[in-house]
Write a structure and sequence with these properties.
412 residues, 76% helix, 20 helices, 0% strand
């Protein structure tokens, strides 16, 4: 793994740890400046630990052509930032994340968030994103909009950089294509630059896949620690992280729970699971979808699952999304499936993993008690964004192994 990729993964995890620290400081009445000192110490120690224990498996080198391509991609991304970014972000930023951050920035009244605003304010959402924002607001003493924008911008930029650095070692052409599919993709950029938490979640899913891949190559259990921490961070940033953790656990059950690996699995996930457990059991209201079923406010899951019209509507939205917004992902997936089935005779385990997470997303749509048309229209494309970078990585790594016949590579 490239050292820069490792550093970006650590920084993303540290942002999530800041959110956890902020949450517990509110519970335990820890002054913000003391918390800042404690988190800084934890950050330095954790960074030194992972760098020291992965020194033999990381490299800081990158070829000159790859360096120029990456520089050009970042330049394109910078130009897109100027064109697409909004001062206050989009709907989720204004109505959910920054709204919630205002409560958490006030130690005396932060618990009012949990019963203010109703279901549409999503007080049950984990604090991974808005908790980090409120940490910086408390530390700086003002509600600067640069805090949530900076967190969102970090994930938006880090994702294409990480994918490019890891794929360019195998095939510069494929890495360049993947870079372009991110830095000029208007919907991906809109989600990231306008502060939707889906981009941050996609960062953690991507980090988990990169770390599990590195563990499978080297056997170094520190990568398993980082993978487990990335899954925990996904769990702490959005409810959809539950599916990511569940499917990862299913596909890598023996790896995570092996006797020699278990303490690394627990060590990585423990801070996030502990924080989420305290939040869910002690403070958060029920999820808005689950609450409907608990109160008997819906006719039942069976009637929804057997409704053929719901399937047709979901398929219709899928077709529209993959024909328009994510058409290149659809094309690359078809190429990947053809190559893997006809040449490699197998699909990547991580491809099955991502397909399983996506299937879980579709099942939620199938049983949602909310208006299905509205639910799909307001969230389907953002759910694809959560898996889009990881899908590009998995497909890109496979396609980078394609060897052209000698006829096409000869200089004669």
């Amino acid at each position: 793994m490239n050292k820069s990729t490792l550093h970006l993964i650590w920084l993303g995890l540290f942002i999530s740890l800041l959110s956890i620290g902020n949450f517990f400081s509110l519970l335990l009445h820890i002054p913000i400046y003391l918390l800042a000192v404690l988190m800084a110490a934890a950050g330095v120690l954790s960074f030194r630990y992972i760098v020291r224990h992965t020194r033999n498996e990381t490299t800081g080198t990158i070829s000159r052509p790859a360096f120029y391509v990456l520089g050009g991609g970042i330049a394109l991304l910078t130009a897109a930032c100027v064109l697409l970014v909004r001062k206050h972000g989009d709907t989720d930023a204004v109505g959910n994340w920054n709204f919630a951050s205002k409560f958490l920035a006030d130690p005396a009244h932060w618990r009012q968030l949990l019963w203010y605003g109703g279901a549409d304010a999503h007080p049950d959402y984990p604090m991974g994103y808005y908790g980090a924002t409120s940490f910086f607001w408390r530390l700086l003493g003002n509600e600067t909009l640069m805090a949530p924008l900076g967190i969102s911008l970090f994930a938006t930029v880090a994702i294409p950089v990480m994918i490019f650095l890891e794929v360019s070692k195998r095939h510069l052409g494929v890495a360049t294509l993947l870079l372009l599919l991110l830095v000029v993709h208007p919907y991906y950029l809109n989600c990231g630059l306008n502060q939707y938490a889906d981009t941050l979640l996609s960062f953690y899913i991507l980090s988990a896949i990169l770390c599990i891949n590195q563990f499978r190559q080297s056997g170094n259990r520190v990568w398993l620690l980082l993978c487990s921490a990335s899954l925990g961070a996904a769990l702490w940033v959005k409810n959809e992280g539950i599916f990511t953790c569940a499917l990862f656990g299913l596909f890598y059950f023996k790896t995570f729970l092996s006797k020699n690996h278990l303490r690394y699995t627990i060590g990585g996930a423990l801070p996030f699971v502990l924080a989420l457990g305290v939040f869910r059991l002690g403070f958060a209201p029920a999820n808005d979808i689950a609450a409907v079923y608990e109160t008997g406010g819906n006719t039942g899951i069976t009637s929804l699952i057997t409704d053929k019209e719901r399937y047709k509507l979901i398929v219709s939205f899928m077709k529209g999304s993959f024909d328009n917004i994510f058409s290149m992902l659809k094309l690359l997936t078809m190429v990947y499936l053809g190559y893997s089935i006809l040449v490699q005779k197998n699909l990547s385990r991580n491809f099955y993993l991502l397909a399983g997470i996506f299937a879980c997303y579709l099942f939620v749509y199938l049983i949602t008690p909310r208006n299905l048309q509205w639910h799909l229209a307001t969230s389907f494309d953002r759910l694809v964004v959560q898996l889009y970078p990881s899908a590009l990585l998995v497909i890109g790594l496979a396609l980078s192994e394609i060897k052209l016949p000698a006829t096409f590579t000869s200089n004669k």
